Amino acid sequence: MNNAASILLLAFLAITFIQSGYDKLFYWKDNLDWLKEHFAKTQLKNLVHLALLNILVLELISGVLCVVGGIELFVSNGRTFGLYGAVFSSITLLMLLFGQRLAKDYDGARTIVIYFIPAVMTVLLLS
């Protein structure tokens, strides 16, 4: 288990993004309605549908890459997919952070930072 920390971090990111993507996919209307209200006073107010779709796709890509990366790391010590998963996760979180800051939801932005730290740690461990 030379890569235990990396595998655990990839599992954390995979669970985070697959669950979030699942939630967006199966509760699309609820998410869209909440986000339209959340971004009503921002420059994104007319782009909420497109932004939600973009985030959904990035979350699912991030989650799948982290799953594949964890398996690759466990089976062959390969780091490629895990690194891509961690980078995609970090980019996705930066996009979410940007949205929260734009909406002036500073508590929401602070929460995203909690997820960003392990994502960047994973990038560092797998680089």
From TrEMBL:
Name of the protein described by the UniProt record: DoxX family membrane protein
Membrane topology field: Multi-pass membrane protein
Name of one Pfam family that matches: DoxX
Alphabetic keyword roster: Membrane, Transmembrane, Transmembrane helix
Primary location class: membrane
Coiled-coil portions: none
InterPro entries from the UniProt entry: DoxX (IPR032808)
Domain of life: Bacteria
Residues spanning the membrane: 51-74, 81-102, 108-126
Localization (cell): Membrane
Source organism per UniProt: Flavobacterium soyangense
